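Lab notebook, page 48
Experiment: co-folding of the full assembly
Goal: obtain a model of how the components sit together before planning crosslinking
Operator: M.T.
Materials (sequences as entered):
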Amino acid sequence: MERVIVDMDEVMADTMGAMINWYQKEYGLEVDSNKMAGGSWMKGFPEEHYPIVKARLHGPGFFRNLPVMKDCVQVLEEMNRRYEIFIVSAATEFPNSLKDKLDWLLEHFPFFNWRQLVLCGDKRMVSGDYMIDDHVRNLRHFNGKKYLYTCAHNLEETGYDRINNWKEAGEIFLSPGFLSQPSIESLPGTKSNSL
Ligand SMILES: [Mg+2]
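Observation: model returned without errors.
Model output:
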């Protein structure tokens, strides 16, 4: 069964959107997406407010209440039947996010098993057949096929095939003929083993 590595923030969860919504309600200031180019959505916030944005990322609860990206649940549920899926999030920078991320995943994606969530600090040790991620720094070292998930901070990147939304992900991964092999395996505990 082919393995797909899926990122969480800005791919499954609208982390940046949640932060912008909160920030605009609290401070009434605009966030400038033009300043995000080069890989950091934080740079869209006024520089003097970086510390409060960082503090919110580090605090408990922020990652527990993020909106789910449109069509993500339906497409991943179907992909989970055909691929070995691992959700890999470089999360240990934010220790309070770890339980929040597990709880968030199991609430919104109940078809995933806890074994499928990998919370790490660096994705260089990850291997698989496909990776979907919004950061070039995570895709760069990957051994399989790389897809850059479009986000405001990566619009200027030209070196990767893109997935712009989950409808497009479904068109790629769920199209007949995309799978090189029929799926006959499953992760222990995730599905019945009967064929
Ligand atoms: Mg991400």
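Interpretation: Residues 2 and 100 are 28 Å apart (CA to CA).
Next step: discuss with group before ordering constructs.
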